[in-house]
Amino acid sequence: MRARRIVARIRNWPQVIVEKPQLMGFAAYKAGMTHAVVIEDRPTSPFYGKEVVKAVTILDAPPLFVYGIRLYSSTLYGLKSIFEVLADNLPKDLERKTSLPKNYNKEEKIVKARQLLNEVTEVRVLACTQPRLSGLRKKTPEIMEIKVAAKSVEEAWNYALSILGKEVRASDVFKEGQYVDVISVTKGKGFQGVVKRYGVKIMPRWHKHRKGHRRTGTASPQKPDMMYSIPRPGQLGFHQRTEYNKRIIKIGEDGLSVTVKGGFVGYGIVRGPYIVLLGSVPGPRGRLVRLRFPMRPPKSAPTTPPKIMNIDVDSKQGG
Asked: Where are the domains of the chain?
């Protein structure tokens, strides 16, 4: 079935030990792909210490605006939201996505929130993207929750309060060489048959009694129910997917330095902050990609940023 919304939802956050409070996720727009020449730094690789060419994805990562704080308490049925605090300098574009309060008293809400900290087990911030700062031709921001990692609830609250109403950059959350999980919604391909959807073999054209060629040979017993393993036509694509342990090889501020000549096909120019990931990520160009601290990080991984010899910026349109 289709994803419920185009912005991916993160249902689980890993338990990490941090030295100081920080956000556990970020969001960026997929601009396109190119390739980079890097020095292989995995000791187990046969190419260790040598130059290798690897495919990379460029993400357009304008700063996120933290417009609220949400407090959660634990119940028998999971986490329950008990209180919210919003900033007083909300972006005007946020009205395109949600209704904004009028005559809001921020200081009064902060006082009430402090009184509830004994019941709080988790602190999350409400953040929105700023697509006007990206290469997209859009104004409506996306909104999301991001968990705050800290040693205690008090530290998480104080950190969330310190960034309330401010911008957070990718370099404030992640560092070069780090592994992250990528959560996004894949390309939508609509209603498709069993051949494209599951790779069912096309039956011979010469046979007169098969009642079709691009279909399954048998649909299994119908009673009490059809077997779940039988390929059937249906929705293909536009599913939320998570790819684990994608490595960040570079975080920069000048997107023009990694934008290919003529701009990325179907996206354009990356003008501001950017993230370079090894490999591909789910979704078409322009799709919002959410990044999260790894849920199951690799046991042995390089701890230092990789050495990048070159990032190819030649035109991808043959020009």
From this structure: 1-17+25-61+174-187+238-319, 62-168
Cβ-Cβ contacts under 8 Å for 195 (sequence gap 6 or more): 202, 214
pLDDT-derived band of residue 134, with 50, 70 and 90 as boundaries? very high
Overall pTM surpassing 0.85 (yes/no): yes
Record: fold of 1-17+25-61+174-187+238-319: Elongation Factor Tu (Ef-tu); domain 3 (2.40.30)
How far is 163 from 154, CA to CA, in rounded Å? 15
What residue type is assigned to position 102 of the chain?
K
Residue 152, pLDDT above cutoff 90:
yes
Q: pLDDT tens digits, residue range 28-66?
A: 999 999 999 999 999 889 999 999 999 999 999 999 999
Of the candidates 72, 253, 65, the one whose C-alpha atom is nearest the C-alpha of residue 163 is 65
Burial 307-318 (b: 16+ CB within 10 A, else e): eeeebeeeebee
- Written out in words, the top-level CATH class of the domain with range 62-168 is alpha beta
What percent of the chain stands above pLDDT 70?
A: 98
Tell me the CB-side half-sphere exposure of residue 263, using CA atoms within 13 A.
11
8 A C-beta contact, residue 18 and residue 197: no
Nearest residue to 267 (alpha-carbon basis) of 34, 21, 27: 34
Q: Please name the amino acid found at residue 221.
A: P
